[in-house]
Amino acid sequence: MAVTRTFSIIKPDATRRNLTGAVTKMLEEAGLRVVASKRIQMTEDQAKKFYEVHAERPFYGELVDFMTSGPVVVQVLEGEDAVKRNRDVMGATNPADADEGTIRKAFAESIEANSVHGSDSDENAATEIAFFFNDDEIVG
Ligand code: CMP
Question: How far, rounded to the nearest angstrom, does the alpha carbon of residue 38 sit from its chain's CA centroid?
Answer without folding.
Answer: 12
